[in-house]
Design goal:
Shape of chain A: elongated
Structural class of chain A: mainly alpha
Distance between the termini of chain A: 54 Å
Number of strands of chain B: 26
Number of helices of chain B: 13
Number of helices of chain A: 1
Structural class of chain B: alpha+beta
Largest sheet of chain B: 9 strands, mixed
Largest interface: A-B, 42 and 62 residues
Shape of chain B: elongated
Helix content of chain B: 10-25%
Oligomer: heterodimer
Distance between the termini of chain B: 35 Å
Strand content of chain A: under 5%
Chain lengths: ~55, ~475
């Protein structure tokens, strides 16, 4: 229960009010982050190897 | 007569000029090397008016290396240390039993160990009492007892490498470990020799005398201590590397950083920033550099972004020299900074959740973002004390949150310079980065959306949203808890 007063589903007037719209919103965020995520996944793999070659101290 | 009680184990030296510092050296009876005396003199001479010398001090950190290493040597190494206490006022010799009376003038202490080389041991100094230091740092309280009187220091721990058992990487790790064990009861205290043994299952030959540590060994030490570390290397993260480092520092997480070109490791514990600047997009643009503990110098050095132009106590290195860092994450922080940043950008630009789609009061192009990690407990504790617009304080305090959250605060230049924001997006730090609905809430000046993270489906009921009837931007204080301003 939130103390802030928010409109009910009926009052949302088309904003994220169907499963289809929610799915599309997910896909939109997925598409927007895909390139960065691929780059970071590769970076993490590269770090695993490089961490064994950097001698400090 | 600037030295008092000099025939006792507790001399008190009044500092007027450099010759008085030499009395401190002679009172230390060979424990304090000339090289380290010069470091202390140059660092403290502007502020310190009294040095109280506590001979025969049993220091837990030195005792650990003494019994495990120095006691096995042929030459004599005493098993006790000398502790120097620094005050910014002249203390009458009759007051040595009531030194707690001088709490406000107490700078801190430095343990001097008889290791012949690199004699400065455990040191805690309050940076707010030392000239020419400024910035925002991780700090916590340390209690000190002298003749039963209790004094308090707020600072970050420092120790120099002894070059036998510990090298710079061990010293850098010890500083991070001691900060956490002093601040949080869930982390056990680890002493220097124990630190050197944390890599025993990942060693390349004998551990002592140490030859240095690989980055992977530092991460292993962090894991043994109780962290769930993440490693970042500049070559892999390229232009985002400095920004990611800043996000973790802004989160109040000190890191161990590697300077591979110089075969050196340091601790980064804060940043210094110029908030008078107009910035375009991200609070990282305010940052002029980081605050570091380099064990070859005394604490709280400035590590500048550029090679020249800094004032104060500056490092010989600069930010570009950092080519890796290891961040001590808590177990349940699975969502790391790079994925959070990418998700923030995607949300803000999105046709459904984006700021231009949902707010009439502010445009994406004008937004300044500040991304950090914090505990939901601290976040709620601060927000409940503040008068946020639309009763948001109550909304956040009653919102179910995991132990740690990522927050992206939203502001504009006009408000950020006053330390104020106009909105924020809060993320579940336990989320998988492939979960695109990892946010708990999105608040723009005239819009709010709450996301029930328990939904497994695309049921629209997972979202509660509404337009907030407002005609002008309402600002409120940005979150301040992770770092202390000095």
């Amino acid at each position: 229960m939130y103390i802030i007063k928010l409109p009910s589903m009926e009052e949302r007037k088309g904003f994220l009010d169907t499963e289809e719209k929610v799915r599309e919103a997910w896909e939109s965020l997925e598409k927007a982050t895909a390139e960065d995520y691929k780059k970071y996944d590769e970076a993490k793999r590269a770090v695993q190897c490089a961490a064994q070659t950097k001698l400090l101290g | 007569m600037p030295i008092f009680n000099d025939k006792t184990p507790y001399p008190l030296v009044h500092i007027v000029n450099q010759s008085d510092w030499k009395r401190v050296v002679s009172s230390c009876e060979g424990y304090l090397s000339i090289h380290d005396y010069i470091k202390l003199y140059e660092y403290l001479s502007q502020d310190v008016k009294t040095v109280f010398i506590e001979k025969g001090y049993i220091d837990k950190d030195y005792r650990d290396t003494y019994y495990n290493f120095y006691s096995k040597k042929f030459a004599n190494y005493p098993n006790k240390t000398i502790r120097l206490h620094f005050f910014t006022t002249v203390i009458p010799p009759d007051d040595i039993l009531i030194l707690d009376k001088y709490q406000n003038q107490y700078v801190g202490f430095s343990v001097i160990r008889p290791t012949r080389i690199n004699t400065i041991g455990r040191t805690i100094l309050d940076p707010s009492k030392i000239s020419n230091l400024n910035g925002h740092i991780c700090s916590t309280d340390y209690k000190v007892h002298i003749f039963g009187a209790e004094l308090n220091i707020n600072g970050f721990p420092y120790i120099s490498q002894d070059t036998d058992v510990t090298v710079c990487a061990h010293a850098a790790c010890w500083m991070v470990f001691r900060y956490f064990s002093e601040r949080y009861t869930s982390y056990a205290e680890v002493l220097p020799f124990e630190v050197s043994q944390l890599t025993e299952n990942l060693s390349y030959g004998r551990l002592v005398p140490s030859k240095g540590l690989y980055l992977s060994q530092i991460a292993e030490m962090f894991s043994k201590f109780g962290f769930f570390p993440e490693i970042y290397i500049r070559d892999s993260y390229k232009r985002n590397f400095d920004k990611l480092l800043y996000y973790y520092i802004e989160s109040g997480l000190p890191v161990v950083a590697g300077l591979n070109k110089h075969s050196h490791a340091i601790t980064i514990l804060g940043h210094f920033s110029d908030y008078r600047k107009n910035v375009l997009d991200n609070s990282v643009e305010y940052v002029d550099g980081f605050i570091i503990n380099d064990d070859n110098y005394l604490p709280y050095q400035k590590l500048l972004r550029r090679k020249t132009g800094g004032d104060g106590y500056c490092s010989e290195f600069n930010v570009e020299d950092i080519d890796s860092f290891v961040v001590p994450l808590y177990e349940k922080i699975y969502f790391s900074a790079e994925y959070v940043e990418s998700t923030v950008e995607a949300v803000l630009n999105d046709n459904t959740f984006g700021i231009n789609a949902l707010s009439k009061l502010i445009r994406k192009e004008n937004i300044i973002k500040r991304i950090f990690l914090t505990s939901s407990k601290s976040y709620k504790a601060q927000r409940r004390k503040q008068d946020l617009p639309f009763n948001l304080s109550s909304a956040y305090c009653t919102l179910d949150m995991p132990k740690f959250i990522w927050v992206c605060e939203l502001s504009v230049n006009e408000f950020y310079q006053k330390g104020e924001i106009v909105g924020e997006i809060i993320f579940d730090a336990t989320a998988n980065h492939h979960d695109r609905f990892a946010f708990l809430s999105i608040h723009y000046p005239d819009f709010i959306l709450l996301n029930d993270r328990n939904y497994l489906t695309n049921d629209p009921k997972r979202f509660l949203s509404g337009n907030l009837k407002e005609e002008s931007l309402q600002s409120y204080p940005l979150y301040k808890n992770n770092l202390k301003e000095i």
